[in-house]
Design brief:
14 helices, alpha+beta, 6-stranded antiparallel β-barrel
Length: about 650
Amino acid sequence: MRKLLIGVGALLLLGSVALLVIPLAGTGSAQTASATTRTATVQRTTLYDTVEGSGSVTAEQVSALSFEVAGTVTQVLVEMGDEVTEGQVLAVLDTGDLEYDVRLAEMSLRIQQADYDEATSPATAEEIAQAEAQLAQALSQLESAQADLENVEDQRLTSCASLDTAEETLADAQTNYDEYVMAGYDQDPAFVPDPDSSEAKALANAQASYDKADAQCRLSTSTLGSTTALEIAQANYDQTLASYNDVIDGPSETELLQAEVKLQQSQLQLEQAQDALDGATLYAPYDGVVTAVNIVVGQEVSATTMAITVADTSRLHIDVSVDELDVTSVEQGLQANITLQALDNLVVTGSVRQIAPSGSSSQGLVTYTVRVDMDTTVDETAPGDTAAAPAAPGGFVPAQGSAAASGDTAATAGSAAAPGGMGQGGMSAMREIFTAIQTMGGAQAVTAMLAEDGGEDTFYAQLTEAGVSEEAITALKDMGGPAALIEMMANGPMGQGGGGFAGGGQAGTGQSATTQATAADLSLIRLGMTADVEVIVNMEENVLVVSTSAIQRDTAGTYVMVDDGNGGQTRVAVTPGTTKSGMTVIEGDISEGAVVYIPETSSTSGSTTSGLGMGGFGALTGGGGMGGGQMPAMPSGGGMPAGGPPGG
């Protein structure tokens, strides 16, 4: 929602204090219009427009942390609400097995590193000499095997020479024996060879000689060696030669790649083991506050267990929904007032950080999310270690800080011109009470009520019936009760000399009070608190304003009557601008501080008492106070229209 705010108040985000512009009001017996004199003062201010929304206090980021491995919780080192720094250990699991895995991986890496270093290092003179010696030895063994094989063949031929002779003798003996047998069958079919015959004996002797020669040949061949020894010697030589070439030429590209891959695999295994060990410890990802602790010592957790939640509270913000008709006037960097309901409407400054590029539609209403950052820093130079906070929203803001009119001095930082050093809670209470007084018949009715027996009790009862909170009534009692209230209204202490109950004096010319958010106030801010946000847009700075009732018109144009300082009046032509809550922007040959006359348009008869003139109330609310003009439903005298609207 968007609204135009006009009034005379203080807006700390500009670092200035406003002068409350309230008309003067006369009192006493009946006066005619011509006898009544009221004035107002021209002020230089800043006019601003606002876009409003509400949301909740949110952290810059919130992280729900979990362990990267499963295990048993052995340490929980933080509690909910603890402040932590980036990298701080929050909780730890049992790491015995994980540490063992790391040690094994380290050993494996050392072995693979040694192999890789050996493969990539050039051969030394000693290694080359050793390789040459091994190659020479293998060559000697090969040559010896080749010579042995040649000698074996010669020896075999020599050993087996008698086998051929024995074979021929056996063949001849077999022929003779066969002829002997055939001849015997020819002579006698019942012939039986005589084993003692010369032919049979010769055959038996020849067979025995052959068997003996064959056995001797076989034995000599087996005992003297074979080609197997030569094959073994050749294989040994080839292998030794390859090793020699590796030493001289170095490893091949394939061998280097294999050694590198094995080394990298060992490195990855160590990293995985170390990551698993590190994953058994929770660290704070950034500076922040612990918002939840969901684990206890001895608990078995998995990698999906949300153990501890940390919020980054270094930068708080509120996301508000802004109507599509208003979002075009919101820009990044615009200042804002943020009111925290839970902290008795504590107000802090803020600024627009982001505006959503796309909107969302609900029931035909399109809104855009606007993110407003809260300023929660503490001004170390301000008295009392306070942080600047804006006054309650509303109205015209002084273009520059200045001392109060009528000789009043400017309010100091951190101090309000409210009675008894009234703080934010007291100001809220007074707003409730003065609103209730209007519903009770105004100041006259309250004064009459208090004059009666039991009037104070009746007054408190009617405040309760009017909806005033117990906290506000208690605050009033702490400030002195109805008697102090009457004194405030009569003498105008709320604005350091403005706005009396009797309508006398210049209402609200004192410095408007400012509010300061102390470090203690800021420490009470909690995530999720409801916040009302007013983004200040379309500032019209360094403009002159005057009570609208002082502006007159005739056929010659628009003008105001200015006090010439000698009891006379001078007509000054002005061009009016924006008007709101009884105040109008003017341009013309007129300066700040000029006193202008307000024409009286009505008269009263009989004895009167002026109405409630609460010009100084702006000092409590931080916005424009209610001045000495006519107040609705009240008798004539000091009233509200000449001043700005109540702050907030």
